[in-house]
Every structure is written in C-alpha cells, then in structure tokens.
Design brief:
Monomer. Pfam families: HEM4 (PF02602), Porphobil_deam (PF01379), Porphobil_deamC (PF03900). It catalyses: 4 porphobilinogen + H2O = hydroxymethylbilane + 4 NH4(+). By secondary structure, the chain is α/β, with parallel strands linked by helices. 34% of the residues lie in helices and 25% in strands. The protein is built from 18 helices and 24 strands. It has a six-stranded mixed beta sheet with strand order 16-21-20-17-18-19. α16 packs parallel to α17. The relative contact order is 0.08.
Length: 527
C-alpha cells in the first residue's frame, strides 16, 4: 500500500502504547503508518466519575469526529470504552489478541484490610464499585480518576485509602504493576476488557482489508458476545454490568453480571456452549438476566440518573415502582418506623367480645406477643381491606370493615353488641374513633400495641408530589420537609391531615398503594 495509514489515538501513555502496538503489527506486514494523537473529553474532565458525565463513548467521540472528517484513517481504542453501537459510517475493522482480562487490586501495606469491617477502596468504575460493595458491604468506596500513573500516585498520597482497583492489562502494558497487587479473579470484568479495537470508515474498503490481516478471531468472537450481552441489557458506562467469554476445549464459556449501584442487588448468569453454536449465547444470557429481575434493575438505574419528582413516604417494592408513568422518577422510604410493644398476658386471658384493629401493625404486634389460639376474639372489626385479609388469615373472621376509623366508629354506634370494645392501637392514634364511641356511651379499652416513630428523609429539591399513607406519614414528612407539590393520599383520614399544608390534596379510589400510584399516573397523563 503506497499511502500512509494515519492512526488516530488518544494521547495518554496507555493509549499511545496501544496505538504503537497496532502500528508495529501493521508495519511488520509492510504498511507505512503515522500516529495522530488526539485529546479526548474523558482525558480532560477528571473531577467526576465517568458514570456521572452522562456521555457514552466519552473516550471515542473525538476520534470518531476526526475519522468522519477524514483526518485519520483508523482509530485505536480500548474496546471496553467503545459504545456497543458505532456512529453511522464507522465500523469495527479488527481486534488484536487480548491481554489480561482481570481487574487488579493495588494495596499499600498488606491485605489485612480485606477482613476488616472498615476499609477505603478507590475506583472510578461503577461496575467495580458495585461488585466490591456486594462482597464487602461495610467498606467505603471513593472515586478516583486520571491516567494509570496519576491514580497510582493518588493512592500513595491518600493516607486513609487502603487500595485502588485497576485493569490488569493497563498496568501490565505500561510495565508498572506494583509488587503489592493481586488479581481479583472473583470480579467479572467489563465487557471486552483487555482488548484493543481498530475502527475504520465503512467506505474505506482498502484500509479495512489491511486491518483484517491483524484481526484475532478468538478475541473477536469473545468480545462480540460480551458486547452483545451489554447491548441487550441496554447498558453503557452508567450501568454496573460485567461480562466475560473465553474459549477452551472448543467450547465458549460465558459469565455475566448485573448489579444495583450500591451492590445490594446482583443477578448472575453463566453458560457453556460448543464453539460454532455460540451465536445466540449473548441473547440467551441477557434474556435470562432480564427474566430474573434485570429489567426492573435497569429501569431503576436509568431512573436514578434523573431528578426525583415524586416521593413516597412508604418504601415501594420493585413491582410497585414498575407501575409508574414513564415521566415519574420516584424515590421512597419509610417515613415511620414501628416498634412493637409488650402486651401483658392478662389482656387476652379471657375471651374479648368486641375488638377493633385498624392496621396491619396491630396484627403483627398481637402475633408477636401471643399465638393465634390465645387470641379469643368474638367480634373483630377492622379498618382497611388489607388489614381484614391479614386478620382473617392469621387470627379469625372479621365481622365488619370500613375504609377509615371514623366510618367504623359510626357503624359501631349502630351495630355493636353490648357497650364495650377493646381497641389495639398505636401511641399516635387519631381521636375520631374514641371520641365518637365515648359520646355514644361505648366504653373503650385502649391497648397500645405498638409505637410509631418518625423517621422521614430530608428530600432535596422541589417535588411534583408526595405520596402519603397515614396521618403519621404526613406528620413525619413535614418534620423534615416543607410541603411541596400535590399530596397523593391513600384515604380521607390521611387527606385530612395533609390538607392544612398542601393546596392540592388528592385521594385514591381505594386504600391501596397501587391506587395511590394510579393517582400519581393520572396527574402525569394530564400534565
């Protein structure tokens, strides 16, 4: 080939090593080359983790532009940094033989901190962070950015850091692997980690043909599987996804992982297929992860990058979070914590004729103190359908239920047998029920079954709305926050508590969490 192949590369020490390796292989085949270093955004912005920059292909974008402008003929990339979908007009021309795929832990003095409760580990990778916290949940992970040499220096300079995590290929290629370093064989690497990729213009058939001469087929097969797995999970730099494929004894071995950012949730998959029958391997493994809850986890990861606009004062389940409108970014936590009281045996020594239970917490308190057979209740009255279901499942038949305590009190005035009732309640119960019954000469024996403790989060920023499930959740939230947006309430009693503070108060059609979510969705459909 008479023309000189212009090799585009980042200008970091590691990127130049990779480009020179490609240059050497091409020149060994008799081709003339020239290195064209280009500085990327990823090299310039060093004060934030990559996953917070919100850009996929941050290390490849500048080289892509240079290629499309025909300033370079090929670009050399660390394949793990390349988006799974290339820009229009640019194609993968080759991958060279893969290096060490592992992540490596570089530590300061010794490895004793691995068995300690508290330790500080540095990494700028969300995948490494999540896997480390999954294995060592009590450790602290701090951010570190920069080239390999600067990161090693930062580790040395920070006295409170115990270790930092690096790609084994990077420190090995630069010949700067410290003695205090161990490969993390348990940590699943980034898809295509340790591999070097060459891109070219799709229209440049001559250059693509030359690059094909140095393509390593085994590396190409394995990295293609890993990157397809990543693509099918819709993951990029902002998702903690690991994948590794390798060929042994004419078989393709694959293992993949998806985690939550904090490492508390993990979905793993592994599969072995004969070489030649591996074409559906990535699809099978991605579908397995999706079926095991991966879709929910990916959705949560995507939502976590957006600003919260709805806050729930009750911790929502994964299934409940999936019910929200696409424009809802919900955060949730329990605004109240329940502490079950010790109830004296004398309370249930004899049969109780009339019993009022207004919450599932009261049911739990009763069953925490007594067996179901000890609870000799003749007539049980409840508030809420879910409380009723729990009572009938674990204690006994419910005579009557209403949607709120006030309605139940009015019913009892007309229908109660006798003039006495035992009420298992919280220390923060409302006055409506006891006041109505007392005015109608019905004696109430109140038993404090549990205590309600306020434990609401302080929520930053303005919200479109807050979801409330009891007057206590309203009170707890307002102790930490100002009223913001719409109060989406589970029932009338809760709405009454929210009304003095929120201009717009809306009540769910039925007293369930799902109905409150439906109320939120109706608002966003109208918005």
């Amino acid at each position: 080939m008479s023309k000189i192949i212009r090799i585009g590369t980042r200008d970091s020490q590691l990127a130049l090593w990779q480009a020179k390796t490609v240059q050497s292989q091409l020149e060994h085949l008799g081709h003339k080359t020239e290195l064209v270093p280009v500085k990327s955004t990823g090299d310039i912005v060093l004060d934030k983790p990559l996953y917070e920059l919100g850009i996929t292909g941050i290390f490849t974008k500048t080289l892509d532009i240079a290629m499309l402008n025909e300033d370079i003929d090929i670009a050399v990339h660390s394949l793990k940094d390349v988006p799974t979908v290339l820009p229009k007009g640019i194609v993968q021309a080759a991958v060279i033989k893969r290096g060490n795929v592992n992540d490596t832990l570089v530590f300061k003095k010794n490895e004793e901190f691995l068995s300690a409760r508290n330790a500080v580990i540095a990494t700028g990778s969300l995948r490494r962070r999540a896997q480390w916290l999954n294995r060592y949940p009590s450790h602290t992970v701090v951010n570190i950015r920069g080239n390999v040499n600067s990161r090693l220096q930062k580790l040395e300079d920070n006295d409170d850091w115990n270790a930092a995590i690096f790609a084994a290929a990077g420190i090995g290629r630069l010949n700067i692997r410290p003695e205090n370093a161990i490969n993390l064989n348990w940590m699943i690497p980034a898809p295509a980690q340790g591999a070097i990729m060459i891109t070219a213009l799709e229209s440049d058939e001559e250059t693509r043909a030359i690059c094909a001469e140095i393509n390593h087929e085994e590396t190409e097969i394995c990295t293609r599987i890993e990157r397809e797995f990543l693509n099918r999970l819709e993951g990029g730099c902002t998702a903690p996804i690991g994948a590794l494929a390798f060929i042994k004894n004419e078989e393709v071995n694959f293992k993949g992982i998806l985690l939550s950012k904090d490492g508390t949730k993990k979905i793993e998959v592994s599969k072995v297929v004969p070489l030649g029958k591996h074409h559906d391997l990535a699809e099978f493994c991605a579908n397995y992860v999706i079926g095991k809850g991966g879709k929910t986890l990916i959705d949560q990861l995507q939502r976590s990058d957006k600003k919260t606009n709805i806050y729930s004062t009750k911790k929502l389940t994964d299934d409940q979070l999936q019910l929200f409108h696409n424009n809802v970014v919900a955060d949730s936590n329990d605004a109240i914590k329940i502490s079950l009281n010790r109830i004296p045996k004398t309370v249930v020594r004899n049969e109780i004729k009339n019993v009022i239970i207004t919450s599932k917490n009261a049911v739990e308190a009763l069953l925490h103190n007594f067996s179901a057979i000890e609870l000799q209740f003749k007539n049980i009255y409840c508030v809420g359908r879910r409380t009723k279901r729990l009572v009938e499942k674990r204690i006994g038949k419910v005579i009557h239920t209403e949607s709120n305590a006030k309605k139940l009190a009015n019913y009892l005035v007309e229908h109660i047998e006798g003039k006495e009732v035992t009420y298992f309640c919280s220390d923060l119960r409302l006055d409506d029920l006891p006041n109505i019954l007392s005015k109608n000469y019905i004696t109430i024996n109140e038993i404090e079954a549990y205590q309600t403790k306020f434990d609401a989060d302080k929520v930053d920023g303005n919200l479109d709305g807050v979801m409330f499930y009891s007057p206590s959740t309203v009170e707890s939230f307002l102790k930490q926050n100002k009223a913001s947006g719409i109060a989406f309430c589970i029932g009338e009693t809760t709405a009454k508590a929210a009304s003095p503070y929120f201009e717009d108060v809306r009540i769910a059609k039925v007293p369930t969490v799902e109905s409150v979510i439906e109320l939120v969705n109706e608002y966003f459909l109208q918005k």
